[in-house]
């Protein structure tokens, strides 16, 4: 190729290759998390549509909860896509100051912790119901959930004032993930324990109870895995932003967890129209 042609091609190729020193490689996990999160958002939309068709007579507080979670998840989807665009596209052209952090990243961080707290609080109410108002257990769930929220908000505030490097390197991030993991373990373990204890011995009831247990365990394992992966990746990331990948998916998993648990009642209603289980309002 003539040298004159290379003069025009090289700048174009340079613009297409991620700038390692500018953070291209560091933000690659964010891009991966963004793509998976976008897919999970589509799943949440499908589950929301199913919920509104299946439970038009649900309690108003549950309907408001579903609307709130879906709105939060929608805004979070926008922020994650914007973050990937800012740092992987615009970031190669614009020289951001070192402490600069876009408002989308601040908002995304807030939404992660607030959505998590909202869903875990709903599960705390669920545990309160099935445990016959076990105050110490419910208080432990609310305490760990609130602690995670406080630690998360401190992370967001620290990142807003000190920059993105501090946001993803502060020990508060790992502490919040660990506390969130403990909270999910408490919720999942409580649901399994009390539903097994409340079995009636009737075959049909046993089958339906087992269905609720399986759904609860599966959803709990997913959120526990993400929280634990954030904690582990924080330890091994060594200046990279590995934790941004599971963090981008966290809100989606909690949203889908809530909707899956609510929609699991559909099969219960079809199999027994007069059955009452102490998980939520399951009778028609």
From TrEMBL:
DUF6534 domain mapped to chain residues: 181-267
Record bears the keyword Membrane: yes
Signal peptide boundaries: none
Ranges annotated as spanning the membrane: 27-52, 64-89, 101-125, 137-159, 171-195, 215-236
Keywords of this entry: Membrane, Transmembrane, Transmembrane helix
InterPro entries with a match to the protein in the record: DUF6534
Pfam families: DUF6534
Name the UniProt record assigns to this protein: DUF6534 domain-containing protein
Organism: Serpula lacrymans var. lacrymans (strain S7.3)
């Amino acid at each position: 190729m003539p040298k004159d042609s290379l003069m025009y091609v090289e700048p174009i190729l340079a613009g297409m290759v991620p700038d390692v020193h500018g953070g291209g490689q560091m933000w690659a996990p964010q891009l991966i998390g963004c793509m998976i999160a976008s897919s999970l958002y589509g799943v949440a939309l499908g589950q929301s549509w199913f919920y509104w068709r299946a439970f038009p007579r649900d309690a108003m507080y549950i309907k408001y909860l579903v609307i709130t979670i879906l709105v939060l998840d929608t805004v979070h989807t926008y922020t994650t896509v914007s973050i990937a665009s800012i740092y992987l596209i615009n970031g190669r052209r614009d020289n951001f100051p070192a402490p600069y952090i876009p408002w989308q990243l601040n908002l995304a961080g807030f939404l992660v912790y607030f959505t998590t707290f909202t869903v875990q609080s709903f599960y705390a109410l669920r545990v309160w119901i099935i445990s016959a108002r076990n105050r110490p257990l419910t208080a432990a769930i609310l305490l760990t959930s609130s602690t995670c929220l406080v630690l998360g908000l401190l992370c967001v505030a620290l990142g807003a004032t000190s920059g993105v490097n501090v946001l993803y390197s502060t020990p508060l991030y790992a502490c919040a993930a660990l506390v969130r993991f403990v909270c999910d373990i408490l919720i999942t373990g409580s649901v399994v324990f009390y539903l097994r204890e409340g079995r009636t011995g009737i075959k049909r009831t046993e089958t339906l109870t087992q269905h609720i247990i399986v759904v609860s365990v599966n959803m709990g394992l997913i959120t526990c895995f993400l929280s634990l992966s954030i904690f582990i990746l924080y330890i091994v990331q060594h200046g990279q932003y590995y934790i941004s990948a599971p963090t981008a998916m966290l809100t989606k998993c909690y949203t889908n967890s809530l909707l899956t648990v609510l929609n699991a009642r559909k099969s219960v209603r079809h199999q027994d129209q007069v059955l009452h289980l102490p998980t939520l309002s399951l009778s028609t």
